[in-house]
Amino acid sequence: MEVILYSALAIAVAALLILMIYMVILLVNTKKTMEEVLKTLGKIDHQVKGVAGEATEVVEKSKGLVDDLTHKSSQLDGLIQGAKGIGDTVEDFNKSLQQLSNIISKHSKEDQEKAAQAVKWGASIFEYWNKRKTNSN
């Protein structure tokens, strides 16, 4: 019975020794894996910092572009208002020309009537003069 006890004890010790060897191998492999994970995380961290820096630059450039566009838009607003003012002035000028044309046309018609009357009077006077002249001879 002692032999069985010693045999069982030897098997248990061998099993524990094999288990310990596998545990050491597992821990060594785990350590290597963790070191690789650490390296990978370091690379990722470096890349994330680079991307974050580039993103910050893009945001700053975007802000600059937005400010520039806002400034140029306000300048265009002034230009558009100026063009509108010119358009209003041209429209007023056209109205004034139309009114002047209407006035001239109206006075021209009145003057035509006066000229026609003057021609009629002139013709009448000339006719009267001719009749007198023929009667006197």
From TrEMBL:
Membrane-traversing stretches: 6-28
Short name of any one Pfam family annotated for the protein: DUF948
InterPro entries in UniProt: UPF0478 (IPR009293)
Keywords: Membrane, Transmembrane, Transmembrane helix
UniProt xrefs under PANTHER family: UPF0478 PROTEIN YTXG
Protein's UniProt name: DUF948 domain-containing protein
Source organism: Oceanobacillus neutriphilus
Upper classification of the organism: Bacteria, Bacillati, Bacillota, Bacilli, Bacillales
